[in-house]
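The material for today's practical consists of a large collection of protein records. There is nothing in a record beyond a sequence line and a structure line. Backbone structure tokens are a discrete shorthand for how the chain folds in space. Nothing more is needed to start thinking about how sequence determines fold. As an example, a complete record with its sequence and its structure tokens follows.
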Amino acid sequence: MCNNTIEYLFPSNIINRHFSLFPDELENDNFVFFHGTSITNAESIRKNGFKSAKALTGKGLTSVTYTRKSINAFHHVCTPKPDQDMIVLAVRFTTEDLKRVVDEQEEIKVCIPEIQPMEIGYCIIPKTYPHI
């Protein structure tokens, strides 16, 4: 996918890992957040950056949401069950960028289009995964 990012394989023991997709050092890093989307959208994000629904379609949210833990992004892309492979991106924000976001405990919302975190990893969730 991206040259500087690491692919983390979908864990076969996802339940035992409490649905965490990434290693603890990423899950517990205060500058790392997660964003779940489709593979197609991820390709667009990599080419054009993260954009709000409003910027993309003229409707919806004016912010982009990132979760503090991968389980929340994972749940978002698996509910309802997708008909395609999905992906959770691990991204890193700078200290300065985090001063300009809306912090909502389990997630952050970025309303400023110029704030673009760096992708550091990703995990593909196969459409065959039976998420309940």
